[in-house]
Amino acid sequence: MHDLKPVTALGQSAPVAETIGTITIAENDTLALASVAARMGHEEACHAILKKLIGAVPGPGKAQLHDPQAGFWTGPDQWMVSAPRETHELLADTLTPMFGQTATITEQSGAWVCFDVTGAAMSDLCERLCAVPIRKMDAGGALRTMIHQMGCFVIRCKADDHIRILGPRASANSLHHALTTAAHSIA
Amino acid sequence: MIIDHPLLGPRDAAEFTYMGDAKLIDRPDPDADTAAQDFHDYAYLRDNPAGWHQELWFHEAGDRSWLVVTRNTLTHEISKVELARDVARSRGRNK
Amino acid sequence: MSQKNRIAGGQIDRAKTLKFSFDGRSYAGHPGDTLASALLANGVRLMGRSFKYHRPRGALSAGSEEPNALVELRGGARQEPNTRATTVELFDGLLAKSQNRMGSLRFDLLAINDRLSNFLTAGFYYKTFMWPAAFWEKLYEPVIRKAAGLGSLSGKDDPDVYDKGFLHCDLLIIGAGPAGLAAALTAGRAGADVILADEDFSMGGRLNSETFAVGDRSGADWAAQTVAELASLSNVRLMPRTTIIGAFDHGTYGGLERVSDHLHSPDAGKPRQILWRIYAKRALLCAGATERPIAFDNNDRPGVMLGAALRTYANRFGAAADRRVAIFTNNDDGHRTARDLHAKGVRISAVVDVRPDAPLHPDYQVLRGAQVVDTRGRLGLSFIDVRQADGTMRVVECGALGVSGGWNPNVHLTCHQRGLPVWDDAIAAFVPGENLPVGMAVAGAANGVFTTAGALRSGAAGAVAALDLGQTPDLPQTEDAPVNITPFWYVKGCARAWLDQQNDVTVKDVKLSHQEGFRSVEHLKRYTTLGMATDQGKTSNMGGLAIMAELAGKTIPQVGTTIFRPPYTPTAIGAFAGRHRGQGFHPTRLTPSHKWAQEQGAVFVEVGNWMRAQWFPQPGETHWRQSVDREVLATRKSVGVCDVTTLGKIDVQGTDAAAFLNTIYCNGFAKLAVGKVRYGLMLREDGIAMDDGTAARLAEDHFVVTTTTANALPVYRHMEFVHQCLFPDLDVQLISTTEAWAQYAVAGPNSRKLLEKIVDQDISNAAFPFMACANITVCGGLRARLFRISFSGELAYEIAVPTMYGDALIRRIMAEGAEFGVTPYGTEALGVMRIEKGHATGNEINGTTTAQNLGMGRMVSTKKDSIGAVLSRREGLNRADDLRQVGIKPVDPAEKVPAGAHLMNAQGPVDAVHDQGYVTSACYSPNLGHHIALGFLKNGGNRIGEELRLVSPLTGVETRVEIVSPHFIDPEGERLRA
Questions:
Q1: Which residues of chain A are modeled with pLDDT < 70?
Q2: Record's InterPro entries (chain B) (predicted)?
Q3: Chain A interface test: which of C236, C277, C733, C783 (most A C-beta within 10 Å)
């Protein structure tokens, strides 16, 4: 076992959580992520394995909120699969043999920062950040959009007041700043 | 503008990058005798119609699909949006 | 000071008093007042000076169409010029100053301009200051800028913040007057997602300004009750203080919400304003109508106002412009003003109606068939001169004159998508035409429906039609009087009769414009500046058009209107910037070693959005060159480490990955062995170089492609284009992994020794030779990638670990490398080493150069097709004397070789015709002890050893230089393979 200590996307040893008004913005540092892209001609086989893994094949704009593995659509025949990092640190290595030649699996754990945003004013916050029609979005909606010029995934979770935002990891501080200033705006 | 993405529905044009005439799909045959002239025309000659135009838009901040958007350059009316991959295949492109 | 013109009634809260200051004097008003209504209540009619002639001016209107009453609001950094007193919501402690005056408002030194008016007519800028040209810059412009112009800026940073936001709705209703409220009620009760936006702080529109009943209550009460019901509906979003400033493509609207403008200053963390982008499936424009004045001599005197504005001030604000008022009208609406004011105890001196059959009133005199031809009074209205139907003149005493020339529907937003309004004779005004923005319909006065009952009906019907609802709800009974109007634009024979009061354009100017041949409305507008002020001619354009039509012997619709463009009312630049200013201008990308580099005191540079360490100053180093020289020498002597995470990384996978790279790169990749890396050059389809980088084959079906930092996004986009649009059936999957991996270059003769302490596998020269790559583990099992590639020209590696371990890895490298004196280096040292090695970057691959120019012409494979291959072979790009990349060094080692300078032959003229090439990259080489450079030189490959002149006429540089090989260091590449 190696002895290197990871840091969170915000550059800290532990994730940051902050409550502003009714909104809580919590960095989620527990996700392992891997992308799954079906290979040409193997789409159906890939779908079958994905369905077995996470319980469904999410269509455009959709996520499968499942435990422990979840997944959401990222493009035509492409998905992001997530699982708890504690138990699935090598998620890509785990998925590769499962999908075999039916899909290309790419390690993505390091590429993203994830924030869980909860609270009564979640929709108001969302309206200050991006063009996602948050009030029309059902649980399991997952859209990529721009937040302050950063391409982010916005995933509507099961609880009505909960969205999960995945943004580019190198811009974690900028995204966090965008979220907290918007929270202060609506507080 | 709003582009009605064939998979994702209406999306703000701000999420897209524009690349102009969809004739860029019709890359000439590099082995043809006339390849030099064909590529010249392909790379440099574009129609710039006042009216209906097929053009390429890339959903850069979305699902990264290239789209062929049929748009009226005078009114910005959009009559059709297709996945460029499907259009390319229908025009005989493969490997 | 007492509020001497405060009268009974209105929707102000008299229980509370607000103190405010105008031009240094204190006044009192009440919540619900605007600055203009409070000033009028305090007997202040004079609110500013005019733009050109410095004539005294007061409020003309009671709304956002106001041309005159512009003030500088607030002080210090928050000072805002050109704020309309008629829309400023009064708050306690409000501070306002009049603008456009020299000296005091009452004694303006530049009022002399008024006497010079014969010289300052239409087009005076064009005529007067044509010659001599230098006088314009040095004399005329500064003087005019000081004399004319509007308010002044604070010159300080705006201390407020602005938000942007995004809203979606089924129906956007623009304007909350009777039509808008009826529409919102209809749509809201039906369950649709409705946004109701109104620029006013109090919803209700004209209902708040009128006295007639709606159903069993006053119009204002009905509005309040309706707003209360709408507020109780969760599907309705009420947005008062929100101006819809533009109608854009496909149902997108811009809405400016003034969140904090009615407060002394915004609460902490709160925005001053929010610019909303509203996505509306349908929109209903219920923007009402704007009353228009009639032009007559000296019609700009403070106290001369729009008739309905007098009514608004009286009914809504409990303020009279004066205790003695006259009316000048061509339609029945003027009489409504007279009746309302009379009922409030204001004395009506006379109602002057141009119509011979005007209605009479028992309590005051109505002068039928009469016209107001002139006014008198110093700094404000005292008398009007009336020409009666029989031609006799009569003087009428009054402190305010309500002018009512009819109403113009607010069609502006219907025209934002090139729609043109059409003329309606019945109301003598333009109404919306057919070419409305997609999804928009118009109701109420904006559509030429001028009765309250009609507005309610058309608003409700508009909602029903927009949402495809079954039935219209029951609507209350209310005023339904017909419009009686006789078009009347200006009094014949007048000259100094103002049309555009903000830009000081008179009837005479329009006549002059016509006389001088500027007859199209667009020319008229630009020549006279009619309608070009901050109010965009809301009260003046129609008058100008009507006069132009008459002069040209045409009808108004034949003359047509100018184009209406967004924004509907002036909008602060800050609102467009939103949070994207200063530090927030764009997102910042931090490398995985950022925190560590900060601890080392690194100096950072912004590259794209990335913050990269530029150099790492050590104690005692006082100049950046000292740090950079040290970093370069230490790396070449022992080992250095540099964060190269910013290079774009794209994983290219799939059974056709190799074939795909063969297409993308001009050189071949099909035969690259697994575990090997190759340099690749991408061309554009026109044969020009696009980007370069490396591709590492980690498996038969898996490559990792690197791009330059700047081109990471465009290259990825290009690759997706080639895949999706040109070769859709290739089995290739592309994904950016730039941020997934923390990547460090470890370079220098001791780099292997250092990495051997970190990497778990054998990386000896035999096991891991130059251009090898592999998936490895480090530090006892962490997965990583290792590439033996070199940008510096030294024995070098790039090592990548998952980003979250990047911080730990740089610390480990530094700790394990201590025995070798490992030195962190920044982008400057990186740049020096690559110039010493002759490697191209964006300076050389600059969008104009070919593989041939870069000395890589032979890399373009002729055995296969690739993007750009065909056109790279064309004659024009393959001439013998083409530019070729060369090295450049000064003949005198003490001289610099500045980048951007041009190469000229040793003898002969220095000009563009004799240009031989240019310097792209330059630096001081600590290894060679003098400056070096890379550049492009005509036929450069055959001119090694030649002496040329390097010139930069702009900076006065002329240096003798020698052309050398671009590979200054280790030209044989022995170090790479060590």
A1: none
A2: SoxD, SoxD_sf
A3: C733
C489: nearest Cα among C331, C365, C368, C380: C331
Helix, strand, coil percentages for chain A (3-state, nearest 5): 30, 35, 35
Residue C121 has pLDDT above 70, yes or no: no
| Interface of chain B toward chain A, CB-CB under 8 angstroms | 7-9, 12, 14-15, 60-65, 83, 85
DSSP structural state of residue C215:
T
**Residue C123, phi-psi category: left (phi > 0), alpha (psi -120 to 50), beta (remainder):** left
The percent of residues in chain C predicted with pLDDT above 70, rounded, is: 95
Q: Do C741 and A173 touch (CB under 8 A)?
A: no
Write the pLDDT tens digit of every residue in C902-937: 999 999 999 999 999 999 999 999 999 999 999 999
Please tell us whether the domain made up of B1-26+51-95 is placed in CATH 3.30.2270.10. yes
Same domain? For A87 and A59 the reply is yes
Rounded distance between C-alpha atoms, residue A147 and residue C578, angstroms: 13
Domain total in chain A: 2
Alpha-carbon span A146 to A161, nearest angstrom: 21
* Residue ending a domain, choose from A109, A141, A156: A109
pLDDT at residue number C118 = 62
Whether complex ipTM tops 0.95: yes
pLDDT tens, position by position, C218-269:
999 999 999 999 999 999 999 999 999 999 999 999 999 999 999 999 999 9
Instruction: Name, in order, each residue with C-beta under 8 angstroms of C22's C-beta and a sequence gap of 6 or more.
Output: C35, C39, C44, C71, C96, C97, C98
Rounded to whole angstroms, the Cα distance separating A25 from A19 reads: 6
Average pLDDT (C666-677) is 96
List residues of chain B with CB under 8 Å from any CB of chain C. Answer: 1-2, 10, 12-13, 17, 19, 24-25, 27-28, 30-31, 35-36, 39-40, 42-44, 56, 58, 60, 64-66, 75-78, 83-85, 87-89, 93-95
- Listed residue (B86, A155, A130) closest to C163, CA to CA: A130
Instruction: Give the Cα separation of C210 and C220 in Å (integer).
Output: 8
CA distances C521 to C528, C556, C559, C877, Å, are 10, 11, 7, 52
Residue range C162-288+409-467, CATH number:
3.50.50.60
Q: Do C782 and A112 touch (CB under 8 A)?
A: no
pLDDT at C481: 87
Closest Cβ–Cβ partner in B12, B15, B64 for A75? B64
